[in-house]
Write a structure and sequence with these properties.
alpha+beta; about 40% strand; FMN binding
């Protein structure tokens, strides 16, 4: 039997994959460049969190998803508020991303001291000044899986801020896109 036949032989037993641990998965996934957002909720649940686990989900209905750890303050805030905003950060907004990623920062309204923002018309969630774009969303589904919940939001309104490049996160660090050469 040649090697091609052996590969197609259904009696050949597949290897049993080893369990991938969280540290190894984090290491491998760090090589996937992502954009950086700040998810916000408003009104009595005022809170913000830097996140890169965010994606467009559907054009019809217009929807997005974000993934939030069960232990994160944002998890309860978003669940309670039922509406949220996603601020897509520009390359110059790394300090803002670091601020809202800092687990030691003061929570509540004080976390927004010195941060320019306005409440979203449909959500009351902070729309951060200088963001490249923002989306206001209504929470329409939540799916718990492992140590995170995938929150799905129907997009109520969108807006664009200034021009520029987005802030990236790759290899455990913030970065900026390299200028393109034409």
């Amino acid at each position: 039997m040649n090697s091609a036949s052996a590969e197609l032989d259904s009696s050949a037993s597949p290897s049993v994959p080893r369990r991938v641990g969280p540290d190894r998965l984090r290491e491998v996934m760090s090589r996937f460049a992502t954009g950086v957002t700040v998810i916000t909720v408003g009104r009595e649940h005022l809170h913000a969190m830097t996140a890169n686990a965010f994606s467009s989900l559907s054009l019809e209905p217009p929807s997005v998803l974000c993934s939030v750890g069960h232990g994160a303050v944002m998890h309860q805030a978003l669940t309670s508020a039922g509406r949220f905003a996603v601020n897509i950060l520009g390359a110059e907004q790394e300090p803002l991303a670091r601020h809202f990623a800092d687990k030691k920062r003061t929570l509540g309204a004080a976390q927004f001291d010195g941060v320019e923002w306005r409440p979203g018309e449909h959500t009351g969630a902070p729309l951060l000044s200088g963001s490249l774009a923002w989306l206001e969303c209504e929470l329409t589904a939540a799916h718990a899986f492992g140590d995170h919940t995938i929150f799905i939001g129907t997009v109520l309104e969108v807006g664009s801020g200034g021009d520029g490049h987005g802030l990236l996160f790759v290899n455990g660090a913030f970065g900026r896109p390299e200028p393109s050469v034409r």
